Structures are given as structure tokens and as C-alpha cells.
Amino acid sequence: MTPDELLDVFHRRIRLPDADTIPGWKVEHIGLVHRSYVEGPEGAGFVETPRGLGDNPDAVIAGELAFFRERGLPFEWKTYAYDEPADLGERLVRAGFTQEDPETLILGEVDRILQRPSALPSKVVLREADGPDDFHRIAVLMDTLWNNGLERIEERLSAEARMFPERLSVFLVEDGLRREGPVVSAAWIRFHPGTGFASLWGGGTLPEWRRQGLYSSLLVHRARLAKERGYEFLRVDASEDSRPILQKLGLYGVTTTTPYEWTPETR
Length: 267
Known about the structure:
By secondary structure, the protein is of the alpha+beta class. It has helices at residues 3-15, 57-71, 88-94, 110-114, 132-146, 150-163, 214-228, 243-248; strands spanning 26-30, 33-38, 44-48, 75-80, 98-99, 103-109, 124-128, 168-175, 183-192, 197-205, 233-238, 252-262.
């Protein structure tokens, strides 16, 4: 399939039906807005508008701000480069959102990845995460690399694996000589039933272990699992570090996405 064909399938199967919302979050479609959120002390929200914002975009934006302000929840408005109106990002910034770093939406067919050879160094072991200790070790790695919250990562992975085990598989790579040592790389895959898509997450690797094929091996390993479960397509929201590797392995950059974050003043 061409990049444009892949994007069309993704838009119809994933974005329009909101098929990739976080398991356990409340999902609401209010007019043109796709909203998902979870309440509580660690609550948060997420908004997309894959059908555009109609004739009064600023009113729609104001409505979402009012909704989340009333609940005291931070939320992310995720935009795609082809979203309407074309100046959506500018409107969000004027409304008080903070623009975060853009990512590339990477899509591809599972079979293309499986055509690629991959091999791990003999000194490491790739295995599926097995319980709380492994989730903690993975969270330590991710927080070390990206400073995105040790407890947050650990709690979300643990809760998701417990409540939706059929939709999440988590893998780690460790030094075969130091089983109790640090996780050197880790990644997970989420399955979206009924869509043909599985999404890839994580992939962080300790600096001293990079350029040894760990990222590629984790990618192929997850693609093989997706194939076994009958999934046709892979999706990644890729940073600039990951994008070249994924494209080299046969996936396509089809558009860019940019998150805009809003946090209530009392948070």
C-alpha cells in the first residue's frame, strides 16, 4: 500500500471511531469533538477533532477548556497536519495551550517488517515482562531516558496489563549476564481489536547499548506477534530519533502530529 492509502485506512479505522483510546478511560463524542478522560487525583484527558471544527472553531475550543477546567483535569489536544482548520495549532496556543514537540505518524504493513532480518547480540536476552518487578525496572529505564515520571509509567503499565491483558504485551531486553541489572531496552505493543492495527510504544534504549540492533529486534519481535494475532498494520508515533530507523525497516512517515497541552492553574 502507498503512504496515502495507509493514512486513509488509519483515518477511517482508527481516528473516526476513536479505536485507540486508552483502555478504561471514558469516551465521549460531542459534536465534532472526540474526548476521552479519566477523573481522580492523577486524572487527565485527551481530545481530537478528526472531522474538523466546523464554522466556529474557537467556540469548540472554549467548550473543551470549560469542560476540563470544571473538572480540574489537564488534557492534551492532539492535532494532525491535515486537520481543519489549517490554523488549529495557532488557535490552541492563543487559547492557552502549550505546543509540544511534533512527531511523525509512521504506518506500515506487518509483512514488510517481517521481511527484514534481525538479530540480537549474544550477550542480551529479549523476553516478555513478568509482573510488577519488571514493570518497575522498565519504568526506571523510561524515566532515566525521558524524565516522564517513574510512578506514572509503572502504574499505567501495571494497571493496563492487569485489566486488559489481551490488548497489551510488554517486552524488555536485559544483559544476559546480569538478570538483576538494569533493563537496557524495552517496548510494548497495543492491539486494537477489529481495526487491523497494532500500535508500537516505548523502544527506549540505554545510550551505551544503542547501535547494536536492540530497537530493530524489538520491532520485528512485536511485528511477529501482531502477525500471529491476525493484525495487518503497525502504527507508531515516532520521535526524530526513531523515525529514520522505522523508515529504513520498511514503514512510512505519512503525516506529522503535534500535541498541545493544557493544565488548570490549580493543578
